[in-house]
Design brief:
The longest helix is centred in the first third of the chain and has 18 residues, at about 25-40. The chain starts with a strand and ends with a helix. It is α+β, with helices and mostly antiparallel strands. A hairpin with a 7-residue loop joins β2 and β3. The chain has helices at about 25-40, 70-75, 80, 110-115, and strands at about 5-15, 45-50, 60-65, 85-95. The protein contains four helices and four strands; from the N terminus they run βαββααβα. About 30% of the residues lie in helices and about 30% in strands. It has a four-stranded antiparallel beta sheet with strand order 2-3-1-4. It has one domain (about 5-95): Alpha-Beta Plaits (2-Layer Sandwich).
Length: about 120
C-alpha cells in the first residue's frame, strides 16, 4: 500500500502569553491570518482552522503538504507564534494514498474577512 505524508501542526495556548493592549490582539490576529493565507496561497498549507478544545489548550490545526522540518520553520514564522501567543506541536502524519482531497478555497486574511 502506498502512503502520502503530511505534517500536522497544533497551535497550543502559551501559558506565558503576554498581556495585549487595546487593538494589539486584533492586529496580531490579522497578521496571523495573513501569514496562514500566504502559506496556503504558496501551496504549503492544505487546511487550517481553529479547534474547539473544551480545555482551551489546543487552539488551531494546520495541515502542511511538506515535511516536519519545513512545516515547523513555516509555522514558527507565524507572527502569533513569534509574539508568544501560541506554542507549537508538529507531528508527521501518513494516510493511504488518495485518502485526502481538497478543493481550492480562499482563506481569510483578517478578522474583517472572517466577519464578512
Amino acid at each position: 500500500m502506498e502512503f502520502e505524508h503530511y505534517t500536522v501542526a497544533l497551535l497550543v495556548t502559551c501559558p506565558d502569553e503576554p498581556e495585549w493592549g487595546d487593538g494589539e490582539r486584533e492586529a496580531l490576529q490579522d497578521a496571523h491570518l495573513a501569514h496562514l493565507a500566504d502559506l496556503h496561497e504558496a501551496g504549503h498549507l492544505l487546511a487550517v482552522g481553529p479547534l474547539a478544545d473544551p480545555d482551551g489548550e489546543l487552539r488551531g490545526l494546520l495541515l502542511f503538504r511538506c515535511g516536519v522540518d519545513e512545516a515547523r520553520a513555516l509555522a514558527e514564522d507565524d507572527p502569533a507564534v513569534r509574539a508568544g501567543a501560541f506554542l507549537l506541536r508538529v507531528l508527521p502524519w501518513s494516510i493511504p494514498a488518495g485518502g485526502l482531497h481538497f478543493t481550492p478555497t480562499r482563506l481569510p486574511r483578517s478578522m474583517a474577512d472572517v466577519r464578512g
